[in-house]
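Worked example

This section walks through a single chain of length 411. The input is the sequence exactly as stored; nothing has been trimmed or padded.
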Amino acid sequence: MSVAPLKKKNLAQILFGPDGDVAMDPIVQALTIASGLLMLGNIVVSPLLVDLAEVYNVSAVQMGLLITTYNAPTVLLVMFIGVMADRIGRKPLLVFGLFLFAISGTAIGGFSTFRATIVLRIFQGIGFACSTPIITAILGDMYDGAKEATAQGLRTSGNNFVSIVAPVLASVLIGISWRLPFVLFLSVLPLAIWIWEVVPSSPKEAGIPLSLYLKSMLKTLKDPQMLAVNFTVLFRFLCYFSFLTYISFIGKQNLGMSTFAVGLVIGGKSILSFLGSTQTGRASKKLHSAASAMIAFFLSGIGFFVIGLAPSVFSLILGSALFGIGDGFINPIQKSQINALSTKEVRGSAIAFSTGVGNLGKALAPGLMALVLSQFGIAAIFTFMGILSVASALLNIGLWIAMRGKTKRQS
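Given that input, the structure is written out below as tokens.
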């Protein structure tokens, strides 16, 4: 009896797991690159704030408005954009957002006044808000299960790659001219054209009465499993932005590390997150998404406890590495969970709501952690982040049990 030859794996499957062939899909390629380039909005501007303050002749406090005005549209408009994506279709809104992001961002380099820059940053933020949640929703429309998790992992790895490379590139360009870093935003324009060509028209629910659409949307958002996932989204963003805010304080003030050394620790965390996100599909092929998220959150929690309970240079490096690996898996898994718990009809709104929850975590992180700092000290911040991560792991245990029970009842 002849034995069928084993199917040879392609490079994408070797790198990203059994469903890695989604990386060969031009739609996934276009959306992944676009998602990564959208990260330029904050990553290009943040390292340049000191230099730009001299250009505009304004204070450091005023320069913070360049970040605030960019992020504000995502907070204020995200639910409206989610509804519009469901009602009129995803592709037109995504392509509009990409064009607005690229043109307004590039135009900043053509003005030398702070007021004009603020206005352009608001428009660029609107472009970002119209784009990022929709990319996630389109991947959910295209795939499900391990394939969708692999696609989300590729999207996250693109974000992490740009987060590693872009600050260095922007720092080099500003050494030539302060206007040059903003030229990087032009790279989004060809992506917008590519997406218009390759992404099919998405489902649109304009034919459904608005009252029925809103009823379906509220039912999805109030589902206990969806609420549990969004609590973990809130906790993840609280931890992520608290880590970025306070790692330099504990590293430099408590442990005597140099700025360069702390930067290496943060860079190492980003690289491990990049590598972890590329393996999301491989993990999802073997484990339920909630089980994968549970392990990743426990790993992150252990990392935070290592830093908070026994502060040292070694524990800071080890804890940051554990958090980096865990967070690399968590981000794409959460997007997959939101997509799995929502239907195509309301997926845009579900992703938008989750994005809003994440932004709430960003907003709450400084004040909440400052309260912990004032009462218990900086090491306690990392211990508290460990508690939030363990709570997220426990929520995913509940999700895992609920989903297994639902599967058994349906079989």
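What to look for: Residues 217-410 form a domain with the Growth Hormone; Chain: A; fold (CATH 1.20.1250.20).
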